[in-house]
Amino acid sequence: MFITFEGPEGSGKTTQMNRLAAWLRERGYDVLTTREPGGTAIGDRVRAILLDPVATEMEAETEALLFSAARAQHVRQVILPHLRRRPLGVVLCDRFADSTLAYQGYGHGLDLAQLAVITAFATGGLKPDLTIYLDLDVEVGLRRKALAAGQDAAQWNRMEQRALDYHRRVRDGYRAMAAAEPQRWLVVDAAQPLEEVQAQIRQGLAPRLPALDRSPVAGGR
Ligand code: Z5A
Predict the structure, then answer these.
(1) What's the CA-to-centroid distance between 214 and ligand 1, angstroms?
(2) Is the pTM of this model over 0.85?
(3) What is the 215 CA–ligand 1 centroid distance (Å)?
(4) Confidence category of residue 49, pLDDT binned at 50, 70, 90
């Protein structure tokens, strides 16, 4: 079963993913947690380029291809091998292809149909069984991150430094994608306390666990 976490910065994806992993492991699932960009040695090197605060000249198209390149490696080297550990293999991934549509598509204005072709090539057709979307006002999320790191905005990575308008377009994009495919997306209000967000994630996931475990792995590998 392949579960992804999506949402604006500071919406709590990493925190909630780790809590969910512990809960699933207690129930006997063989859980792998991973993240994008990254998850492999090659992906981590691409990540460093993508988030480098000084790489301000990077074009949106370059960004889309670099995120996709890291993803191609991640899917084949890490995600698919774990998903083959059926029936209890579960992969929890902090961001995946929907981030490319949200950030490079809705945020930067790249053509969504073209991005869908690029991401399908990168993933080999692998789609999440469930995408947990943590919805949060972008200013609240950015404030949370700054608070957590004790840093000021001048020290944010290249993506975080972008204007609020950009982050708002990203959030609107996420909401549009979630509304268009409600059977795959579980939308949770991330402004709630940590425990309440986790409770709603578990509640939304629980009934899907057995049914999704019987479904074939998309991508046919
Ligand atoms: N990106 C892209 O453009 N295209 C792509 O295809 C992909 C990614 C894959 C990756 O950055 C950047 O790459 C990201 C998208 C872009 N852009 N930016 N900026 P990253 O990996 O460094 O960061 P992130 O993925 O955006 O995650 P995050 O911002 O670090 O945050 P998070 O994982 O959502 O939240 P957290 O770390 O769990 O929590 C943040 C803080 O908030 C922490 O102190 C928590 O204790 C606190 N928190 C969490 N939940 C709550 C609640 N409910 N209440 C109060 N406080 C809370």
Answers:
(1) 31
(2) yes
(3) 30
(4) very high
